[in-house]
Amino acid sequence: MKIHTTAIVDNRAELENSVLVGPYTIIGEGVAIGADCEICAHTIITGPTIIGARNRIGPFSAVGGDPQDLKYKGEKTELVIGDDNIIREYVTIHRGTIDGGGVTSIGSNNLMMAYAHIAHDCKIGNHIVIANAATFGGHVEVEDRAIIGGLVGVHQFSRIGSFALVGAMSGVTKDIPPYVIAAGMRGDFRINRINVIGLKRAGIDEKEIEQLKAAFKIIFRRPELLLNEVLSIASQQFPDSALVAHLVNFFKTSKRSVLRSVGKDE
Question: Phi and psi for 106 in degrees, rounded to 5?
Fold first, then answer.
């Protein structure tokens, strides 16, 4: 373990022997940091916060702070972070609240670029990219391999589906379906198409992608039909597709309603 002489580490914090702690960093009580993590200069980590292995937390980040929720009265809540995440400069991540289950969770292999904000009770999956200054309100859920552009604002309780790509400077107020590219501001937020490039990069089979594209046309480009009707048609036509099944289930489990507005057909 290498802790800079100017760093302040509470003697009740638990750090693995291979952790590096930079200058002027403060690590508080109730913090546990796994093997081979690097905590850069001027970072503040407060607890209870559990951080897995091989994470790099950039300068001036504030991790594990109290939730920005007026209902919070000092209850003991947690932040849990997985492995192999890169958290860049000035990122803020807050612990959960009792009403939200008490835990903010971040998975593994994520990149959070400078000035990103993850609010209380968010559930962030794996292999996600969150670009500069993107801001998540409380209780936001993001599924695996989503990409969130710079300066995106995500309304509390919204969900963003797996492989979704949200364009820069967008304002998200509804659930964003899996596998789509979407962008826009409030009142003019639209889905453009399936994120084919992202799916191919992840090694998704070409046949699966073609089935998903066909299901997309059924669900998003049949405005004369009710939502339940298009979901049923898509499920019946592609009963063996895991991607289509996930897309359909995402609609069925939404609590805020799912974005269905689309741009011009390409």
Answer: -130, 130
Band (pLDDT 50/70/90 cuts) for residue 1 is: confident
Nearest alpha carbon to residue 64 among 52, 53, 54, 50: 50
Domain with CATH 2.160.10.10 in the chain: 2-139
* pLDDT at 263 (0 to 100): 78
**DSSP 8-class letter at 127:** S
Q: Which residues are catalytic?
A: 120-121, 138
Between CA 232 and CA 178, with CA 263 as vertex, the angle to 5 degrees is: 50
Q: Residue 37: which of 6, 9, 11, 12 has the closest Cα? A: 9
pLDDT, tens digit, 9 for 90 and up, residues 24-56: 999 999 999 999 999 999 999 999 999 999 999
Do 163 and 198 meet the contact criterion of CB atoms below 8 Å apart? yes
Domain 2-139 classified CATH 3.40.50.720? Answer: no
Distance CA 234, CA 221 (A): 12
* Short-list 131, 130, 147, 143, CA closest to 175: 143
3-state secondary structure of 196: helix
pTM of the model: 0.95
The first and second tokens of residue 67, run together, are 């939730």
Give the type of residue at 60: F
Residue 178 identity: P
Q: How far is CA 186 from the centre of its chain?
A: 20
Which pair of tokens denotes residue 221?
Answer: 């480009």
